Amino acid sequence: MLTLAEKISRAEHFFHYKWTREELLVHRGRLLDISEWLSRNFPSPYPYKLSQTNRLAYTQEGIKFPIFGQCSCENGKMLIQIHSNLPLHEKIETLLHEWAHAHTWRHLNIELEREEHDDEFYLVLGRIERAWENAWHMN
Ligand SMILES: [Zn+2]
Known about the structure:
The protein contains five helices and three strands. The chain has helices at 4-15, 21-41, 88-104, 108-113, 119-137, and strands spanning 48-53, 69-74, 77-83.
C-alpha cells in the first residue's frame, strides 16, 4: 500500500503527460478491447460507460493529486473514468481496479454502507488481474 506522500509524487509525475488526440484514441481502443473482455469474463450488473478525463484531479479532502480512476453508478449505468494523463500501462491497471468495483457493485444503499476496498473487492481484483495476465500478457 502506498503512502499519501508516495502517491502524490507518483501522481505528479504522471500529471505531466500530455497525450495528443491521436494517442488518446489509441489508448481508448486498447481500453475498450480490455473492457469488452472484462464484461464477458467479469460481468457488471449494470451496463457500463468508459471515459478518459483530466478532471479527476483532487481527492475528496481537497488534496491536489490526480485520481487515477473512479467508478460510479449513475442512472443505472456504471461510469468508469480513467485519468487521461496516465501512461497506457497505468490506465490499464486502473481499468482493472475500477472494473473490480463495477463487478462487485450492488445496490447504492449497500454501497453507501460498504467499505470501499473490502475483502470481496480485493478477492475479485486478484481474480481479474490473474485472468488478465493469463489472457493478455502470456501470449
Ligand atoms: Zn478503488
